Amino acid sequence: MIPTDVGCPVQLTPREINYPSMAAQVEMRNTYSVSFTRTVTNVGRANSTYVASIKGDLSKLRISVEPNILHFVVFCMQVVSLA
Fold it and tell me: Which of 49, 53, 56, 37 shows the shortest CA–CA distance to 73?
């Protein structure tokens, strides 16, 4: 049986939703800082390592991901990442 009346009990901004992608609307003439926090769960093999990558035109942006390397030692291990 699939419920038809589903709702989220917590109000989240789009930035707080734990999606793998991130986007922010900003004005190009202003300096700004935007942070995204993500909880990452290892659904792959134990002892897995993942390296963050940033794609796109970075000539006008400074982007960092912390930590930039995630190392999981067990299945379903979780790590909080800040970008």
Answer: 49
Q: How far apart are CA 80 and CA 48, in angstroms?
A: 16
Residue 9, pLDDT score? 66
Token pair for residue 71? Answer: 């190392």
Nearest to 70 by CA among 61, 81, 59, 62: 81
The dihedral formed by the CA atoms of 32, 37, 42 and 46, expressed in degrees to the nearest 10:
80
Expressed in angstroms, the distance from the first to the final Cα of the chain is: 38
Question: Tokens in use for 59?
Answer: 């000539």
| Segment 11-63, tens digit of pLDDT | 777 777 767 777 777 787 888 888 888 888 888 888 989 898 888 888 877 88
Cis check for the bond before 3: say yes or no (omega within 30 of 0): no
